[in-house]
């Protein structure tokens, strides 16, 4: 007679659960808001509240020099929009901005293509050549002050041109009404193109080489490859860079103020220097606030267009 071993039953017991703290769930809900609170406070203190104050100032007469400012509604806007000096500043800003953006793109594409060419690829130290070119162009000496020194009557530009016989005598480029706007535009172009060159070079690195090989098989030359392959591939980068450059250049102040101060005879006056002079030269703070609001509204349209372009690009 055989006896079987009794069945064994394994009973697993889990560790007792600790009772959750009654406030742990509430703490978890509020933790994200606590983390973003410093950023929200900075944005409110440095952007939102100052913008609201400027908008309110634009609706009163002179709010700083007048102890009892009076509400004038949109009278300041009528004054600004009918001021010939304001429209002269707008005209100079448009010329300065459009010329800078277009030539930034042209020079940036040209230098990016050069650094991405087969000639640079064939160099023994091509990585060193690229990095040296990018670092050197980003540290070139064309700051506003140095640019003003180079365009001085006794500066490098006049010395070279008079030595070569292109000029009979030195020209005060920044003090001559006919050349002042051109001079500050050249300084802005030269000081800003390295950023666009580096960004476009990064965009070129992302273009598949198969597209160029297929274009060569179809008989496309270098020019055809540029317009059919390179430009379409760089279009999202070009759109983004152009819109950002448009925003940055329209708000350019340091360059103009350090070189010409808006002169001579308002020939380089832009909207930023126009607003600054209203506030701190004429002490018309309400009119300066009004001009700032007009600039803000114009910049918002460009910013909205930029955001829409970015959303379209992200969908592809």
Features:
single chain; 316 residues; mainly alpha; MetI-like fold; 68% helix; 0% strand; transmembrane helix; transport; transmembrane; MetI-like_sf
Overview of this protein structure:
The protein is an all-alpha fold and 316 residues long. The protein has a domain at 94-266: Orthogonal Bundle (MetI-like fold), CATH 1.10.3720. The protein is built from 13 helices and no strands. It has helices spanning 24-57, 75-81, 84-115, 118-121, 126-138, 144-150, 156-164, 180-205, 209-217, 222-250, 254-259, 271-280, 285-314. The radius of gyration is 30 Å and the shape is flat. Mean pLDDT is 82; it is low at 135-139.
Please sum up the structure shown.
This protein is mainly alpha-helical.
SSE blueprint:
Blueprint: H1 24-57, H2 75-81, H3 84-115, H4 118-121, H5 126-138, H6 144-150, H7 156-164, H8 180-205, H9 209-217, H10 222-250, H11 254-259, H12 271-280, H13 285-314
Helix pairs in contact: 1-13, 2-13, 3-8, 3-10, 8-10, 9-10, 10-13, 12-13
Family: Belongs to the binding-protein-dependent transport system permease family.
Protein name: Sugar ABC transporter permease
InterPro entries: MetI-like, MetI-like_sf
């Amino acid at each position: 007679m055989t006896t079987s071993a009794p069945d064994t039953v394994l009973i697993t017991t889990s560790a007792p659960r600790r009772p959750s703290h009654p406030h742990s769930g509430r703490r978890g809900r509020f933790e994200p808001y606590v983390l973003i609170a410093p950023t929200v406070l900075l944005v409110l203190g440095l952007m939102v509240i100052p913008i609201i104050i400027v908008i309110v100032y634009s609706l009163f007469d002179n709010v700083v020099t007048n102890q009892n400012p009076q509400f004038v509604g949109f009278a300041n806007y009528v004054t600004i929009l009918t001021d010939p000096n304001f429209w002269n500043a707008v005209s100079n800003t448009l010329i300065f901005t459009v010329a800078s953006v277009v030539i930034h793109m042209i020079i940036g594409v040209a230098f990016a293509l050069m650094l991405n060419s087969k000639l640079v690829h064939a160099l023994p130290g091509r990585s060193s050549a690229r990095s040296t070119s990018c670092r050197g162009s980003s540290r070139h000496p064309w700051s506003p002050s140095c640019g003003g020194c180079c365009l001085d009557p006794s500066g490098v530009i006049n010395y070279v041109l008079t030595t070569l016989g292109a000029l009979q005598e030195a020209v005060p480029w920044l003090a001559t009404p006919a050349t002042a706007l051109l001079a500050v535009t050249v300084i802005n172009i030269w000081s800003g193109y390295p950023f666009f060159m580096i960004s476009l070079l990064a965009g070129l690195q992302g273009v598949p080489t198969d597209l160029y090989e297929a274009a060569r098989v179809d008989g496309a030359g270098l020019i055809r490859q540029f317009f059919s392959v390179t430009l379409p591939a760089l279009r999202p980068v070009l759109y983004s860079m152009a819109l950002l450059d448009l925003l940055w250049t329209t708000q350019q102040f340091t360059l103009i103020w350090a070189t010409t101060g808006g002169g001579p005879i308002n020939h380089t006056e832009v909207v930023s220097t126009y607003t600054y002079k209203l506030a701190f030269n004429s002490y018309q703070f309400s009119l300066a606030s009004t001009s700032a609001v007009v600039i803000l509204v114009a910049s918002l349209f460009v910013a909205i267009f930029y955001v829409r372009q970015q959303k379209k690009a992200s969908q592809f």
